[in-house]
Amino acid sequence: xxxxxxxxxxxxxxxxxxxxxxxxxxxxxxxxxxxxxxxxxxxxxxxxxxxxxxxxxxxxxxxxxxxxxxxxxxxxxxxxxxxxxxxxxxxxxxxxxxxxxxxxxxxxxxxxxxxxxxxxxxxxxxxxxxxxxxxxxxxxxxxxxxxxxxxxxxxxxxxxxxxxxxxxxxxxxxxxxxxxxxxxxxxxxxxxxxxxxxxxxxxxxxxxxxxxxxxxxxxxxxxxxxxxxxxxxxxxxxxxxxxxxxxxxxxxxxxxxxxxxxxxxxxxxxxxxxxxxxxxxxxxxxxxx
Amino acid sequence: xxxxxxxxxxxxxxxxxxxxxxxxxxxxxxxxxxxxxxxxxxxxxxxxxxxxxxxxxxxxxxxxxxxxxxxxxxxxxxxxxxxxxxxxxxxxxxxxxxxxxxxxxxxxxxxxxxxxxxxxxxxxxxxxxxxxxxxxxxxxxxxxxxxxxxxxxxxxxxxxxxxxxxxxxxxxxxxxxxxxxxxxxxxxxxxxxxxxxxxxxxxxxxxxxxxxxxxxxxxxxxxxxxxxxxxxxxxxxxxxxxxxxxxxxxxxxxxxxxxxxxxxxxxxxxxxxxxxxxxxxxxxxxxxxxxxxxxxxxxxxxxxxxxxxxxxxxxxxxxxxxx
Lengths: 289, 323
Prior knowledge:
Chain A contains 11 helices and no strands.
């Protein structure tokens, strides 16, 4: 049989429409609007109220601005890992993935749809996080056109580096609900030692070294470079924004993660079937009782 | 229900040659580790036929269907679905097949129309003369009684309405072959009846071959041109509901009384035995009864024994009973 022309472009277009519909749908559930979009900005704005007018030693940056910048980094981290893991984990179990597999070239549409949904959702969540910070918090500002450019590429590269990690976790966790709670423990731990909420220089040297292996540290530095005054670079380990290293490490994680995620997701897709969805459903029913 | 088979016969006559079967399975085996789930299943479904795969829970119905859908790799045997081995089915093959899945909570935030339209889009490149793909979304919604729910979100639908959405998703690509796994599981009696009517309409209008699984004999009798009973990993009976019933009736018990004495005789041919009795005893015979187990009784016995862990022997004895 001849290959059908335009199958893949057609599925890609359907995928974009899926992503957009899911993005719009995410505003119809109050739980998702609060949990997905409003909770984080609120938490970090409240946090800045507690730190008052203190400044970071050595750079003179207001601590509130550092906290808000940390909020942006944490948001990226959560979107890339927890949200992706949660979505993949539950859609593997509830039959969404199986429906995609039943349609011709449906998995292409599904993958494009998930990616586009993540992009649109991240853009909205990021805007909601930035807006109150820019208005309310001194020293928290996009650092000119260069800063804006940095913010965009760091965001894109961070999500590209983090999402495969989330996807692998979501595909392998046996119970997506408790599982996501479980992976949050190392994620929060990593955030604390990666200089996101406080300068990494206060950590013991060996922890600094460990933190630099992971994408979180580099993503955080990129976000700080975009949103904090130039003077804050003095508080970094190297005393300057190491943007080429940020790009390099994140890109490396993205490539390795993509290869691993593709393998894991293919395996997950191959294994999905009606009876597995049915089994997951029965298990979920039991958990509910 | 004889319509579909009559139609396919009529077509064979018109074309002079029998059409290739939609599904052909020979010697299908499936092992999970050391457990044999399927031990040599043979089955055929002609084009346009509605076939029910009936059997107790755990008989391997779902496994069989998932192999035919290309979602599971078989251990052994020959399988051909629409002219292809499902294990090597490409996207074009997939476009010709519809699967009605058991929905659960997927796409809960989606509106009915959005979802059906979305999945229809994947089929557009596979449109053929005489079989435009996909179905027009609004026409499909109307024909399934979903028009008034088109803009509702799936999470607000009743069980019966969700099931219709499942069917719409299975049909949107205008499939030549449709798989339905336990289509009425979890439906209330009214929704179940509506659903049966819907399937009848489907089979008649679009010349779609349908393979459905069920553990409910009454449902299989109502819907299918042909019933295949799967038990103990094999097909133990194959035929129309009427034919299966007549096969069961062959093992009958004739009881009668002569001169106050009661007699019982088991026979494959009760009519002949009764004629013989009359020839010998004439009007001396009283309390004459012929007891044949119904298909339902025989099947329920099979189900009961399968569920109490005696599946294999129950299947063997069922096969003897119905031969």
